[in-house]
Amino acid sequence: MQNLISASAIACLAIVGGATAVLAGTEHNPANTIQLVESHPDSFRHFATELPSMSERAAQINTEFGLHVSEIGSGLYFVTDMIYQSAFLVTDEAVVVFDAPPSFGEGLRSAIDMAAPGVPITHLIMSHAHRDHNGGGYTFADIDDLNVVAAADNAASLARNPLEGFLAPTQIFEDALELAVGGVPIELRTAHFHAEDTDVIIYLPEHKFLMAIDTITPGEAPFMNFGATSNVNAYLESFENFLSYDFEHFLSGHVSVLGNREDVVKARDYAWDVRDTVHGLMPHFTDRVMKGMQAVSFQNGNLAYRYAMETIRDECAEDIIGRWQTELSVVDLWADSHCETTLLYAIMH
Predict the structure, then answer these.
(1) CATH architecture designation of domain 52-259
(2) Between the CA of residue 255 and those of 80, 197, 314, 330, what are the distances in Å?
(3) 0.70 cut: is pTM over it?
């Protein structure tokens, strides 16, 4: 396992041991940065490779248009370019698109044309108003009377701050919306687990399909800061909401794997373990700050505070990696950010 203690924390540890607290002119040398030189102490070779269980689940790309497309239920298709995900539903009457990542380019239209030649695309339903998941809406701009569905808070965000590639919402809802397209029910509910305004949970009960974007990464530890969530507590509480649905397929927006119920349970257990580990270390936070203050002769409170934060973060990350490195891929890559995110929330609350 690579060293998770940053250079600044090491410096603090040194001064706590009795050295002087004069740090002026010290060269900044950040640790835990990935280097491509194999002989470097922070070489990428020190990070674990993907677990075989994850590699075995990876989708296969259709090289003709650079996407993986597979039918996961009657007329419901899963789409990924190995990094982003979306889906579309084909009924006898129409096609409904769920998110349009710009990384897909024209590939998504090509996939729909191949799966449903001649069937009109009538709906684009947006999970949230972040460009990386819906900035590809422009590829549907030529469709007359396209119904662009968005939550009210997302529509308001886009009105205040128009983003490149988005289509203007034409159907706006507040808390919930139930649609039936070609006789297939689609349920939309707002939630707050990632975006700064609102998120939309998309549920197709007949297909047992649940879509909640920027939440988990099936088979892997979540992306840094728990998917860059804007609300840590809401993220931690969201899993019980997801698990209240009757679903078998879980589309989370990233990596090449379509998730399932077990993936959501494992992601919940991981996130809750990080939370509980940080909370278990927090009773010693003030003591660590005081130790740092004494080391700097009460002359640099910021440094002492950072020392306390980093030692808790690093102890948490070491514990989490030890418990989860055989259960989820890339734990060693993101555990320190999960611990730090949870720690910052714990300090403020």
Answers:
(1) 4-Layer Sandwich (3.60)
(2) 8, 24, 27, 12
(3) yes
